[in-house]
Design goal:
This protein is of the alpha+beta class. 23% of the residues lie in helices and 36% in strands. It has 2 helices and 7 strands. It has a 7-stranded antiparallel beta sheet, covered by helices on one side. A hairpin with a 4-residue loop joins β3 and β4.
Length: 153
Amino acid sequence: METTDLVLRKTISVARPPDVAFRVFTEEVPSWWPARTHSIGHERVDSVVLEARVGGRFYERLDDGTEHDWGRITIWDPPERLCMTWHPGRGPETAQQLEIRFVAEDQGTRVELEQRGWETLGDEAEATLANYESGWTGVFGQYAEAVEEARAA
């Protein structure tokens, strides 16, 4: 199956400047990530952590201290851009690439997510992409609520 042309894109606008939108996305992940439904450990998730640097991990920590990697930061360019590998619940050899851009607009920030590299999943690529299509919609909704509640730094 040829899947190299599969790309998932999501965009949302928030009424805060890029520095606030970036900070909430990276430093306040537990305030908006729906760990009960979008994680490996579900109700056992104690925290979701994004290490703010190139090479940093994005992972969940369970109530017993067990950690599950979701990906690694590959580009750290605050407050404009963040890139990472993405493989929650799978090995790093199946990772997609996530790129999140924070673009200033008149009324705040347009947050653009692009997820590429579905070919690593072989025959499961299209079904997994469809799952993520709806999943990111819900996640972005919760993120937007958290940004709206955030104060300017």
